[in-house]
Task: inverse folding
């Protein structure tokens, strides 16, 4: 079975550019999560969706970050304009159902470097 | 407030040694779930196990075992006869059924395990 698929795996871009990260959740999963991982702050939840609806975006750092889930099989995380402090590994995860007892399954991550 | 503490930042062992990774959690919920994830050097996060707050049975899966003790709010992870392939960062995480985290995973900072040949 296909797991969570993220693209690109690596992204290097210059400060000020728009960055779009993509995620395809596991088919049939109802919840989707975006995380950011840095050495300083560890794993941080940015936003999550239940049934394509954003439920909690309190982790989104600022207005430069936005996330969408237009359908059950696709989500994007956009940073515009990007800054060097956005450099991190960004993970997408999906979960079967909307209940907290189900494990989240993670993609391989996107390693983002902003120069 | 909900919190997960993994006090061991790094552990180094020699192959075939047993090693225990500690995890202590805080929550006000009476119903919650605990998880362990593995992050190998390649970077992906791999789900290992889930435990419900109302099930304190210990679990064994091959060389892996988990000890859940509500009395001490701990959910420790033991690797028996460690192997080089066990080298990774291991994360403990908490999810509450009704609390402020809204069912999201609250992660510890992780323990980096290095197994040397």
Result:
């Amino acid at each position: 079975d296909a797991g969570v698929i993220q693209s690109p795996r690596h992204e290097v871009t210059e400060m000020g550019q728009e960055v779009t990260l993509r995620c395809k959740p596991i088919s049939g999963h109802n919840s989707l999560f975006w995380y950011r991982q840095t050495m300083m702050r560890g794993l941080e939840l940015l936003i999550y969706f239940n049934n394509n609806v954003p439920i909690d975006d309190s982790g989104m750092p600022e207005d430069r970050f936005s996330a969408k889930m237009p359908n059950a099989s696709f989500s994007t995380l956009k940073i515009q304009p990007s800054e060097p402090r956005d450099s991190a590994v960004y993970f997408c995860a999906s979960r079967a159902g909307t209940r907290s007892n189900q494990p989240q399954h993670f993609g391989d991550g996107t390693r983002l470097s902003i120069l | 407030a909900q919190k997960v503490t993994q006090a061991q930042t790094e552990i180094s062992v020699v192959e075939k040694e047993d090693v225990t990774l500690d995890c202590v959690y805080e929550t006000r919920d009476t119903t919650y779930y605990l998880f362990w994830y593995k992050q190998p050097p390649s970077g992906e996060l791999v789900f290992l196990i889930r435990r419900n707050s109302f099930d304190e049975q210990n679990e064994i899966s091959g060389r892996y075992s988990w000890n859940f003790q509500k009395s001490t709010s701990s959910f420790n992870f033991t690797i028996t006869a460690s192997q080089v392939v066990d080298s990774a960062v291991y994360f403990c995480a908490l999810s509450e059924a009704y609390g402020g985290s809204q069912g999201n995973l609250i992660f510890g900072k992780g323990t980096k395990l290095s197994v040397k040949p």
About this structure: The radius of gyration of chain B is 14 Å. The first strand of chain B starts at residue 3 and ends at 5. The mean pLDDT of chain B is 92.
